[in-house]
Amino acid sequence: MGVDSTPVFRMYLWNETKEYNGLHVGENLVRWVVRNIHQVTVWLTPPGIKSLTLAPYISDGPVLIMFTPTLSFQNYDMLREIALEYYNCQKHQSVSLLARYIAYHLEEKILQLKHLDIVCEKQKSKEENFNIPVQIINQPWNNSSFVKNRKQSKLGWADSICQLGANKQTISTTSLFADKDHLSANSLTKFYWQEICRRHLLSKPPKLNHISYQTPLDSTFTGLACQTNKTVTLLAMDSDENAHFADGLGVDLSRRKDHTAVVLFNANLELLHVLKREVSRQSLVQFLQDYTAGKLERFLRTEARKSRPINRYALPSTNTTNIIQLPEITTGTFQTIVLNNSQNVVVFYHSPYCAFCHGISYVYLTIARLMHNVPDLLFTRLDGESNDLPWEYTVHHYPSILFFPARRKAESRAFPTNLQLTVNNLAQFVLANLNVELRLLGMLDLCRRWNDKQSLDKRRDCIDEVRRSCLNSISDTLTNYRVVITRYPFSKNRHQTLQRLLHRLHYLKTLHLFLGTAHNETHLTVEFLKYFKTESDFNWTKTINRFHDEL
User: Which of 88, 136, 322, 325 is deepest in the core (most CB within 10 A)?
Assistant: First the structure.
């Protein structure tokens, strides 16, 4: 054995032997064993508190986790068989035989469960067909008065005994009440099978497909872990006790057959893959082969928040229906809402674990409330922790605010990280990314901050600022009009451009004149849109599209 001194601790592995050289302390020995032991699969049982149980496996690279109930280990045995072949890099015959033995043992379990299903079904049918014998005696006057007044012989009790003695030679002794005796052989056998069936039904074992141990796995799968630099660690966890882990990965175990699911994720690359097919021997092998070949698509988590306490803003009104509700975007609705070309969309990325997100949410809600009358401008929220997006729409920190302009979704803007997130800064960020027409309406909406009588002067100053912006825009539009007339030759595009500029001039002139006489209006934006529609037979969608198409 080569032992020169004692005590000595050695670990005999498949192809090597390791010797412990540290202090003889129990905690150090446990760490040494855990660090050096070689396991193709590991059944993890997190303690239920904050711990580093998963950290060593996640930090090493990609991890495959099978969530399955502990009441039946058939799925885990299947994972062990697959893991032995997956890590059999040298293609040892002994390892393949061990994998086939596990498959044979699994096949025996499946056959036993099927036989037990048949036995329990027969036991159930026997109990359902059991009828208690009932005898009905016709005694219409068998009541208390009839029994009381009936004459009986004083020695009537001895008649049955005498009759029994007279027929003693013709009576044979049998166990008439064996079924009622709980200690009889029949009763004990019946109770045994009832208990077996009860435990079998309560355990709810998974309905695995029949496999043959005589059919080995695909030869190309043997040693797959060593063929590329994508070696996967194979783990298993109890799906009943650790369903919250699966929920965090976007998998609802309650909708999975037998509460069993398989996920594969790489924390370093932020990649997540989920086995969409039913968990079986063939599907699991194909899943690992597709991952090694790079054929798996990234799984995007999506979840809509059930509670909406901070994405609603009640206006100062007695009307309970006057509430601003910000749509909560998910992975499934991102395409239809945010990438809608006809709308300018502002997205607030937040996380339930981000305390600062809750702290500055009032700023975002304030701007959404003040500018909710601006047409084609939508303020939304997105829980980035529960909803995965394509890489081009993923942010690196929370909170983040992105602006997706209409008809120019590829030119999205992010709120600068070097600016403090205040009402004024956020308002300027939104206004700067709107076109001229909507920017003026947004500025007009912001003037509603001073609706009380004490702030009338500030309100007038704000409206005057909007009028000055109108004049500047009119001057710029006239300059562009002269440039098009003098520099561009006659063509269809030239005519269309001039028409758009004329529409803009008409819009700006109308807004400037309206603000000169509407200082006392409460909702200036709404009133102006009504006025402009009446004056010029206004079609807002058609006109705004013309503004967007401006060269």
Answer: 88
